[in-house]
Predict the 3D structure of the following.
Amino acid sequence: MSLSRVLTAVGESLRRHPRRITGSLAVLLLGTGVTAFGVAPLAPDAADLPVRQVLEAIEPLAPQSAKAQTEALADFNFKLFRTEATRSSDTAASLLRRLNLDDAAADAFLRSDANAQLILAGQPGKNVTVEASERQQLLKLSMRWSTDDEQMFQRLVIERSAGSAGFTSRIETAPYIRSAQLASAAVQTTLFAAIDDARIPDGVGVQIAEIFSTDIDFRRALRKGDRFNVVYETLEADGETMRAGRVLSAEFVNGGKTFQAMWFQPPGQDAAGAPLKGGYYTLDGQSLRRSFLSSPVEFSRISSGFSMRFHPVLQTWRAHNGTDFAATTGTPARTIGDGVVEFAGVQNGFGNVVFVKHRNNMETVYAHLSKINVQVGQAVTQGQTIGLVGATGWATGPHLHFEVRINGVQQDPMTVAKQSDVVPVPAAALPQFRQLANGFRNQLQAAATIDQTRAE
């Protein structure tokens, strides 16, 4: 066959079957490529590499050194550490078991020692830290707890006596380490729901409500979308956060209006030689402490306000010229301002009741108390506990009935508090105040970014 005929036949095949021939050529080329890669050497042949011997003399360990090292290893003891929280159902034995301790002597000591019995006394949830040997024997136990003193905490220490199975115990007092925390939250339903969502301690939420209670009616004026930023102290004991401290600064946006506050203690002493009292001020220097508080108890759920209501005992609709604060029996009831006790005793449907006379013909009433802590004629100061909440008189449950009267006419406590006097920062302390205020502004701005970052 001539060359021209062969080329003509190939061209005709390409025209009739282009895909089939193209695919065959691709397979042929790919196969050739794979085969080529498969046989290509990736490294030099090991037989062609040079061989070199390295000889190094090792000196034997001296018998005395070997013996010393063996004895040191035999005397080495591991120390194990573990922390557990106490439970309401705990006994000394069950607590030790959870701590992975098998120590009958420690169990007996925890049950018999007066200091050691503090571990399981009172409220559960105390953190107990132990140091133990590898044989699961107790070497040291420590537990910390807070007291009413905001400067110091107490620490229980139990240690195994050296060279014996006995134990000793002691209670120590040590100062807290203070640090500042920033937090931010938005209100969707209630203030305390926002506090919970932001993992802020309840005590901080109570302080926020107290600080702004005169400017914001947390019973009726709280709105969805309100937000707050706060800088507060935490008190730490041996690296463990024990409690929340004071709110250092706070900002609350209510209905689009911003309220700010900061803690400030003016330098110097009063006429009696005592340090001047600290308090909360706006960042421009106006005191948030007014002549009268808006509430006779710390912020709590309100069962009824200043309005008409269906009386639960008399079964009739009547004016409720006061405010009922729902609280558990024993909650402290405080006077909202300086005054003199006008009446303290039992009176009709009020049950145990206290009347306090203030300036400008103002009088306050604290009813249904379970206990009265003051006497007629006694001078009282703002915030002083005058009795404990109860359910005496015409009450269906524990609560505090509170009234504010001016010239014998009942008034809304919130309105009276807002209209009371305020005190500015002393002029001599203004330079120090302004410096602190600038720092708190920056901290509140930083706190505001926390919730924004979380949302992003």
